[in-house]
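Researcher: Please translate sequence to structure tokens.
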Amino acid sequence: GSTNLNDALSTALDMFTYSETKVPIIVMLTDGLPTAGTTNLETIRENVKSNNKAGPVPGRCLKLPPGLSSM
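Model: Translation complete:
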């Protein structure tokens, strides 16, 4: 399958609105580098910065071993 990190992060960021009482966080699980959509990591990083309108939304990425998703 394909890995579209840019669209996934953009969709996740669109789900948040600013709140003084809630702390948003994005946890992404992936088995590889971006292979679909925007694949340049610097461009993805800049897109995340510009789309992060709900205040600082921290993100964590857990990289799974290749092939795990096909088990």
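Researcher: Any highlights?
Model: The longest strand covers residues 26-30.
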